[in-house]
Amino acid sequence: MTTSPIRGRTASAPGLAEELRISIARLTRRLRNLRPPAAGDGGRPLSLTQFAALAAIERHGSMTPRELADHEKVQPPSMTRVIAHLEDRGLVARSPHPTDGRQVVLHATAAGSALLADERRRKEAWLAKRLAELTAEEREILRRAAPIIDRLSRS
Predict the structure, then answer these.
(1) What value does the mean pLDDT take over residues 72-76?
(2) What pTM was estimated for this model as a whole?
(3) What value does the mean pLDDT take over residues 113-136?
(4) Cα(102)–Cα(66) distance, integer angstroms
């Protein structure tokens, strides 16, 4: 295992915060770079905001545009543009709200779900390959840290 150049500073909370911030940012950037060009739209992949919105819609089954904007912590006008782009690409569709005729709900299309599944497979394959290069002890440390990191991400 390669040691971190800032190892030793993790004894303090600020030192650990710095090391985690750098490591998580680097891992996130590496995973983001695994994204392939999209077939349509001039070969451009979805933006991170578009991808996150599509993933939220799929995870929750359906959402109103307002719920989606609130969930993603963006202003409704910004989310309107994101939704329009996802709709134009055939990744989400609108349907009437079951109880409020003034609203619509969004749901992921089969193409949207397939795009998400493909991206998840690609990233998980890369991570699995990297994890296989670690020792059993290192993998166990990461296994135990994963729920803690998840809890941090939700606070």
Answers:
(1) 91
(2) 0.74
(3) 94
(4) 12
